[in-house]
Design brief:
By secondary structure, the protein is mostly helical. It has 21 helices and 3 strands. Strands 1-2-3 form a 3-stranded antiparallel beta sheet. The longest helix has 32 residues. Keywords: Membrane, Transmembrane, Transmembrane helix.
Length: 465
């Protein structure tokens, strides 16, 4: 019995040694295959050129610098604090790790805390120009006046933002560093549109036009210049709000004045540069590259409280992660998605499916690698790559919203009765950009509808007639 036990133990020991040896040989083979990284690929170079090839821009001309400090106290200078916050981020990015307790300079103001319940209710109702907003502003002129008086500084700060002629997100592409707080910016936009609505009630078509022109010009600049996906979507949200609230102001003008007050950009189709996702894709690539470079850094180990075993595993797998190869493959996916979307509007529904299939083809392979080179990088892509098509759909839907806004104001300017709207919509040149069909008339809600390609409620746009 003792001899059998010794023999079994010996066999077990040999089997373990053989398995360990096999794993070691396989690991050494993987090391040999992964001994060097790839050069920068064509797609990665294409995306990088979008930022490296830009002309110099003074911080005082840059709207993004102003945005970084937008929420400081009313008596503070947003541009000065934006410059300080950007300088702080660059300084922290140059260090091996962010010191404990380090926070961005400047304190944000909680201006909403001083609002009356009536003002806050009006702000909440007018996120978009649905019937709740129409009812609220129709019955709340005193509240509008009180809001405008109490937050005059926010209105003026928003006007100062709109005066900028350039937008560049010249920041470290790292999620550890602050980004603009866009909520107060949107509150300023609401104030501007309520001012336009007030001027429309006074018959001041020129004043209405000046406010709306400044707003749409700025946000279309942001749409074309955005270098991060989040800021691209912020510009989309701002433009959607601009059209819906702007249409309310124009509708309040006398019929013969509405078209005169409509900004020229309402008649200008969304351009290829505004539609393009290439710039924000370049930003997404830089975010990913910075995250990959931090995966085994000592400061990241401390930040995420990585255990001793985790550090050992990181050390083992580090040689099997090729950052440039991972970046190249991610860039190829991003560039392929953009190329798939560069089609006329009528072809976009099918193009979005093709673009989604590009990312699905990577994600559906599962986490297990299918090649010996860069297995960890391949797993990173397969697990982490998102579907970008719904973001792209939000952008392309803007053309339908623009057409609907211009058409709604045009119908109002001709004082078309509601009973004739269905016929007028069928005869109009402005149509759904994807299928060429007329916009829909909803008699129950008294709204003209455009249903775009975005998922859920984001794709439904209603303009009260």
């Amino acid at each position: 019995m003792e001899m059998q036990t010794k023999k079994a133990f010996k066999i077990f020991t040999l089997a373990v040694a053989a398995c360990f040896g096999l794993v070691l040989v396989l690991y050494l083979i993987l090391l040999a295959v992964n001994w060097r990284d790839q050069p920068v690929g064509q797609a990665a170079a294409r995306l990088a050129a979008l930022s490296t090839g830009r002309a110099a821009l003074a911080e005082g001309d840059n709207a993004y610098v102003f945005l970084m400090g937008f929420q400081v106290a009313p008596n503070e200078d947003p541009r000065a604090w934006g410059q300080k916050r950007i300088a702080w981020s660059r300084q922290m990015a140059a260090l091996p790790n962010i010191p404990d307790g380090a926070v961005p300079p400047g304190a944000d103001t909680n201006f909403k805390a001083a609002r009356t319940p009536e003002v806050q209710a009006l702000s909440d109702a007018c996120r978009t120009a649905e019937q709740a907003c129409v009812d609220a502003i129709g019955k709340g002129e005193a509240t509008i006046a009180a809001w405008a008086a109490s937050e005059r500084w926010l209105f003026e700060r928003y006007r100062a933002l709109l005066a900028h002629q350039a937008w560049r997100e010249d920041m470290p592409y790292d999620m550890r560093f602050p980004m603009p707080a866009f909520h107060p910016v949107f509150e300023g936009q609401k104030l501007l549109h309520l001012k336009a609505w007030t001027l429309a009630g006074q018959g001041d078509a020129a004043g209405v036009k000046a406010l709306l022109e400044a707003d749409i010009r700025f946000w279309r600049l942001g749409l074309a210049s955005s270098e991060m996906l989040i800021s691209k979507m912020i510009a989309v949200a701002a433009i959607n709000r601009h059209f819906s609230l702007g249409a309310l102001a124009l509708r309040r003008l006398p019929a013969q004045s509405a078209m005169q007050a409509m900004p020229q950009q309402w008649l200008a189709p969304v351009s290829d540069a505004e539609r393009s996702m290439l710039r924000p894709f370049a930003g997404e690539l830089r975010f990913a590259e910075n995250a990959l470079r931090r995966t085994d850094a000592p400061e990241a180990m401390r930040e995420y409280d990585v255990t001793w075993g985790g550090k050992m595993a990181t050390g083992v797998f580090k040689p099997l992660m090729q950052i440039q190869d991972t970046s190249n493959r991610y860039a190829e996916v991003l560039a392929s998605v953009e190329d798939a979307l560069r089609v006329p509007y009528a072809q976009l529904p099918q193009a979005l499916v093709r673009a989604s299939n590009i990312t699905d083809a990577v994600a559906k392979k599962g986490p297990m690698p299918d090649r010996m080179y860069n297995p960890v990088g391949d797993m990173f892509l397969r697990v982490g790559i998102p579907d970008f098509t719904n973001y792209a759909a939000r952008v392309t839907d803007l053309e339908g919203v623009r057409r609907l806004a211009a058409l709604t104001v045009g119908l109002h300017s001709r004082a078309v009765p509601a009973a004739q709207l269905r016929h007028q919509l069928a005869a109009a040149d402005e149509r759904n950009p994807y299928d060429g069909k007329p916009f829909q008339w909803d008699e129950k809600t008294g709204a003209i509808l455009f249903v775009g390609l975005s998922e859920g409620e984001r794709g439904r746009h209603a303009f009260i007639y």
